Amino acid sequence: MQTRLVEYFLALEREGHFARAAAHCNVSQPTLSAGIVTLETQLGKRLIRRDRKYAGLTAEGEAILPWARQLVAAAEALGQAAETARGPLKGELRLGAIPAAMPAIGCLVAAMQARHPGLNVSIRALTSRQIERDLAAFELDAGLTYLDFEPPAHALSVPLYVERTMLVSAVDGVAVPDPLDWAGLAILPLCLLHQGMQNRRILDARLAERGLALRPLVTADSYVALLGLVQQGRLCSIIPDSHATLLDGLSWARTHAMPQADEGSRVGVIVSDSAPMGPLAQAVLGVARELRLPQGFRTG
Amino acid sequence: MQTRLVEYFLALEREGHFARAAAHCNVSQPTLSAGIVTLETQLGKRLIRRDRKYAGLTAEGEAILPWARQLVAAAEALGQAAETARGPLKGELRLGAIPAAMPAIGCLVAAMQARHPGLNVSIRALTSRQIERDLAAFELDAGLTYLDFEPPAHALSVPLYVERTMLVSAVDGVAVPDPLDWAGLAILPLCLLHQGMQNRRILDARLAERGLALRPLVTADSYVALLGLVQQGRLCSIIPDSHATLLDGLSWARTHAMPQADEGSRVGVIVSDSAPMGPLAQAVLGVARELRLPQGFRTG
DNA sequence: TATGCCTTATAGAGCATAGCTATCAAGGGA
DNA sequence: TCCCTTGATAGCTATGCTCTATAAGGCATA
């Protein structure tokens, strides 16, 4: 069983295109094409549906997909383990983080690189569900996400901090009642994350408990976009307090406590709980356990 | 990364001998020797300590051992998944079972082969600790063992039956008091399993709670050996009631209830809980869940 | 209808590598 | 000293992966 051929298969599944998959694997198109045929011959099944162009996987192809991913992940882990049997880690650490946790990721990455200077880090902003999915598909080494809501199966986690939310408005913008109650919040002109995003789902759930619903005038998928909207003065937004550090120097922004000191949402590092655990995952968990976040991140 | 070379490495680690490892891999000794060198070159580390003969693994070799096992297990699982994407399983199912559970393994295997006619099954009698170790090393697909004592981590289980023990003696052998109490048990001439075996540890623990200890005159590692000793008439033994079915036709044997209806020990199937779960493990769990054991195996 | 492009498969050559047999070198024991 | 065990080396063969070049089928457009 050639790991290389399985990589061809996975690249083809990702790209949906022979030539692009070949380029991604740094081989020629005929090489990848022949490699797929070889793999199909060795396994005794057709994996790809073709009618003059790529047309998805066969049922057998879909069936072996998880095992193919595990195989290349295992090969990768073996190389990592050999390279780092002693001494610092090398290679690339693939991190996924929810947007709300982005302010914290700098601390985590800095701590990782302090411990392992040769390590490259690749950060992707993802939804919590994408993080879960990509961890299972071995396309991420670790994730930074919520620990309490719909926690993924087969995952180990280390809590880092508790996120609370706050309302932010422009100094010369809409008037925010003080103190703010839930009903008052619901009638404010708001811009929020898209409805599918977990942070938004949590917020919606809190209001739904009280029979209220938010009707944001604008939705976006990034807090930077929300802050840009707030800066215009016409809207308010609700953002995690971890972003407060980013707002410290902003003269135009004003923050308000949310209607009720909510219990907060635990945010932490998760890795796939496979046996044995890869060296990268081990390292991330180890660093996360010892991590001390700066002021502005509450731990309980 | 060549799966083949990693198999060479694992075979060498198991056999501790280049030529034997090569024979086990169905290749010549120089081939395996060169394969190890190639693997060491690709990984950039020496894996084997050599001074004119095999002298164990280096630290790096030990470090990558779990990942090497996972890699070949993943390759194996990929082949299995492709072969059995639809239709019955093929290949070899490697089962480990504690001696006490051997009478039940026939039912499990029969049910597996009824569902998957092409499946070969290889059964090994092992201690519960060996089962746990070999599952982690991907050298077993499933185990039949105790579920309640020192359950292994990273394992999924399905309970099958509850094992209770009974005393067995020869009809014309030593007199057994009726009813039997713990103190009376302790002074009987007994033959039992070796002290390290888990069934024996459980029994010893039960007596230790009452300040008693068994001093068997003979110990063995198989119930057949114990029954042979009992047949001589001089000794009694304590065996699981699952063996009662085997004694049904024996005129020379007499069974006695143990001093106290003990709570019994749950026995069931365990598989390694890795993601994704191999097709063999899935099949064993599925069959075990639907398995109906015959009379003589209590389920609660 | 003809042309051109996009996509995948095929052909043939070159090279790397894994396999074999035969043999050698270094210890260890009789 | 001789012989056996153990692993490494040499030389050769065969397999097979990779490349470039090209063919073939479909689709859009002139």
Automatic annotation (TrEMBL), chains A, B:
It holds the Pfam family HTH_1. PROSITE patterns: HTH_LYSR. The keyword DNA-binding applies. GO terms for cellular component: cytosol. Residues 1-58 form the HTH lysR-type domain. CDD domains: PBP2_LTTR_substrate. Keywords: DNA-binding, Transcription, Transcription regulation. It comes from the Bacteria. The keyword Transcription applies. Belongs to the LysR transcriptional regulatory family. This is LysR family transcriptional regulator. It comes from Sphingobium psychrophilum. The lineage of its organism: Bacteria, Pseudomonadati, Pseudomonadota, Alphaproteobacteria, Sphingomonadales.
